[in-house]
UniProtKB/TrEMBL annotation:
<protein>
    <recommendedName>
        <fullName>NAD(P)-binding protein</fullName>
    </recommendedName>
</protein>
<dbReference type="Pfam" id="PF13561">
    <property type="entry name" value="adh_short_C2"/>
</dbReference>
<keyword id="KW-0560">Oxidoreductase</keyword>
<dbReference type="InterPro" id="IPR002347">
    <property type="entry name" value="SDR_fam"/>
</dbReference>
<dbReference type="GO" id="GO:0016614">
    <property type="term" value="F:oxidoreductase activity, acting on CH-OH group of donors"/>
</dbReference>
<comment type="similarity">
    <text>Belongs to the short-chain dehydrogenases/reductases (SDR) family.</text>
</comment>
<keyword id="KW-0521">NADP</keyword>
<dbReference type="InterPro" id="IPR036291">
    <property type="entry name" value="NAD(P)-bd_dom_sf"/>
</dbReference>
Length: 254
C-alpha cells in the first residue's frame, strides 16, 4: 500500500505561492503531509486565506519580494525559524515570475528587461544560493520554465519571457550537476497553457478557445495537474530524476 503522506515532516518553500499554480502546489503538497511556506509579494489576503485553508500549524505566509536579494535572505531565515517547520528546507519551488507578453524586440524597454530578469532569473538564482545550505540530502529544487521554450511556433511578443525561461532551464542543468553531489535533485517543470488568472488576463474568449484547440486534448491544463507533477518531483519516487526539464502540457509541445 502506498504512503498517503509521503512528504510528512518535509518543509516546502514556494515563492508566488498564494495564487494560480503556486496556490495549487501549496495545497497539494500540504495534502501529502508537507509543511508549507507560502511566499507572496503583495496580496496578503489571498496568502492568508490559503494558510487558513491548509491550517496555521501546517502553513505560514511570508511576504517578500522574490527578486530582491535582502528579501530572499529574510525569506529563507524566516522559513528555517518558523516554529512549525523543521529548521530546514526540503522542497524549494521558485515559482514567482512575471510574463510581459508585449515585449517584441523593438518594444522592449530597459525597465521591462530589468524587471523580467530580476524576478524570473535573479530571484531563483539567489534563492537557490541562500536556501541550499539549509537543504539536507534528499531535498528537491523544482524550477519553473514553460513548454514554449521547445516550441517552433512562438510569436515575437514572447521574446523577453522566453529569454528568462531559457536561463532558468540552463540553471537547472548546471545546478543538477553541482547540487547532485550534495544529494539534492534539481529539475524544472515546463507547463503548457494553464487555466490561471495570469493566463486569462488580456485574452479574449475566442483566443482562449483557439489556444485550447492547439492541444491534442482540446483544452487547457489545470493548476492541479501542474501541482501533481511538481509533487512527484518532490517525492520519494523521483530520486533518480535530476537535471530534467519536464514538459507538462498534454502533448501540445513534444
Amino acid at each position: 500500500m502506498s504512503n498517503p503522506q509521503p512528504l510528512l515532516n518535509k518543509t516546502a518553500l514556494i515563492t508566488g505561492g498564494s495564487r494560480g499554480i503556486g496556490a495549487a502546489v501549496s495545497l497539494h503538497l500540504a495534502s501529502l503531509g508537507a509543511k508549507i511556506v507560502v511566499n507572496y509579494s503583495s496580496n496578503s489576503r489571498a496568502a492568508d486565506a490559503l494558510v487558513s485553508q491548509i491550517g496555521a500549524d501546517k502553513a505560514v505566509a511570508i511576504q517578500a519580494d522574490a527578486g530582491n536579494l535582502q528579501d530572499v535572505e529574510r525569506l529563507v531565515q524566516e522559513t528555517i525559524s518558523w516554529e512549525h517547520g523543521n529548521g530546514k528546507i526540503d522542497i524549494l519551488i521558485p515559482n514567482a515570475a512575471i510574463g510581459l507578453l508585449t515585449c517584441t524586440l523593438d518594444k522592449t524597454s530597459e525597465e521591462d528587461y530589468d524587471r523580467s530578469m530580476t524576478l524570473n532569473v535573479k530571484g531563483p538564482y539567489f534563492l537557490c544560493q541562500k536556501a541550499t545550505p539549509h537543504m539536507p540530502a534528499g531535498s528537491s529544487i523544482i524550477l519553473v520554465s514553460t513548454s514554449l521554450t521547445g516550441s517552433t511556433q512562438v510569436t515575437p511578443n514572447y521574446l523577453l519571457y522566453l529569454t528568462t525561461k531559457g536561463a532558468v532551464e540552463q540553471m537547472t542543468r548546471v545546478l543538477a550537476k553541482d547540487l547532485g553531489r550534495k544529494g539534492i535533485t534539481v529539475n524544472a517543470i515546463g507547463p503548457g497553457p494553464t487555466a490561471t488568472d495570469m493566463f486569462f488576463e488580456g485574452k479574449s474568449e475566442e483566443l482562449v478557445k483557439t489556444i485550447a484547440s492547439w492541444n491534442p486534448f482540446g483544452r487547457l491544463g489545470t493548476p492541479e495537474e501542474i501541482a501533481r507533477a511538481m509533487a512527484w518531483l518532490a517525492g520519494p519516487e523521483s530520486t533518480w530524476v535530476n537535471g530534467q526539464i519536464i514538459k507538462v502540457n498534454g502533448g501540445m509541445v513534444v
